[in-house]
Structure formats: C-alpha cells, structure tokens
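Q:
Just now I want nothing more than another pair of eyes on a protein record. Here is the record:
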Amino acid sequence: MLAWLGLSLLWGLVGCDVFDKPETLPVYLDLREARIALDEDGTFTSRVGVRDFWIDHNGTQFGVYRIPSVVPLLPAEGGNRLTLSGGVFETGLSSLRARYPFWEPVTIEVEGEPLDTVPVSVTFSYYPDTVLAYPFAEDFENAAFGLTPTGSGFNRASLISTNQDAFQGFRSGRVEFTSDQYLFEVVGNEFIRLPQRGTNDIYFEITYKNNVAFTAGLYYISANGLERGEVPAGLFFNSGMVWNTVHI
C-alpha cells in the first residue's frame, strides 16, 4: 500500500510538470576564444595563458568552462547579461584553476532564439597602472638585462638576447642547454618591495617556449636575508615549440 501511494504521488507531480509548464529551450554558448591585450592600444593580443571563462549570468555565478567549449544557457526574462572573466592554471596545473585578478572582466548581452548557437570571443585587458603595479618586467629589448646569472662552472648555461622568433617586440631571451651545460639560474638586479598587509594578489608571469623538457623554480630572499624559500617547489615544463604563459 505504501509503495502504491508513493508511486501515485510521484506520477502526479511529474504529470503536472510535463503538461502544465511550457518547455524552456536553451541557447548554446560557443566559447571559442579569449585573447589578452598586451599593449596600451590593444594592437598586440595573445591567446597564451587563458585557460577558462569564469561566467556570471545576470549577476549570479554561472560556471567555469574550458576554452573552447559549448555550454547551454537557459534564457532569463528581461535579458541575458554575461560577465566573463579570464581564468588561469596556477603554476600550470589544471587542478589549480583561478579567476585571474589582473584582467578586467568583459560584459556582453546574449541574444538568440531557443536552440541557437551564439559565438563568444572576447579580448581581456590588464587593469590600468592606477590599479596594478609592475615592480619587475623583462622583455629583453635592451642590451642590459634586469637579471644577473648566479654561480659559475662548466655546467652553467647562459642567457642571451635573440631576434629569432620573438614573442612580442623585436627580441626575446634564449637559454640553450646541452649535455654539459644543463643548469641555469639568474637573480633580479634589485630587491622588489611587495605588499606586506591586506589581501593583495601577487603573480609572476613567465612566457616561454621550449624544445626540451625542464624543471624550474622561483626562489625568494628578503632584503635582510632572514626569509627565503621556493614558490612553488619545482615546476615541470613539457617540451613544445609554441608560446605559453605560466602564472606563479
């Protein structure tokens, strides 16, 4: 008897949903591409480093989606406003996904009929200098680098500037490893003052490409020499001759 009552009640609820409510059909978001403007006028853009779209729909968090992907969106009455933020893999790991705090979100209005596919491609820009601080940047365009090699020995590889296949501008840095020269280490020429209070986000961006796998780390030491460490404890870079950006 209890089983029959339960089945009867479930059937009644399902019947109301099917026959009394109109079916809502989605619009499909074709999340095709995200680019980053790397100069002030936006003439140079790049796709490297942007992994996800973090999407808010009409002010409510909608989800995090890889690029590219196709996502269904149920239209809302009164319009569909999407706010898109760019996402990264911290230290290059897909398990450490983060909304990148230094790119300004982009807001778009989505229009389309049910079952339509709406292409979505956006270009993010860094927040202006009035908001962000860039205490260190090295583009290898000048004869003097902001980095100095540390240590010495036959197994140390060297850093040079080259105009072959530059990422942006006219030059990039190049390190060539051999079976004899397999170590490379540099240190910044000046100490960098970092925020000591509050919840400021701090990232180190490295744009690279390589034809040999290697392991790297980022070390820090305080001006008084009392604090030091490694962030993170060793990164592994697979070989791949395409430009990529890692966010540490």
DSSP finds one helix and 19 strands in the chain. The radius of gyration is 25 Å. Residues 136 and 192 are 8 Å apart (CA to CA).
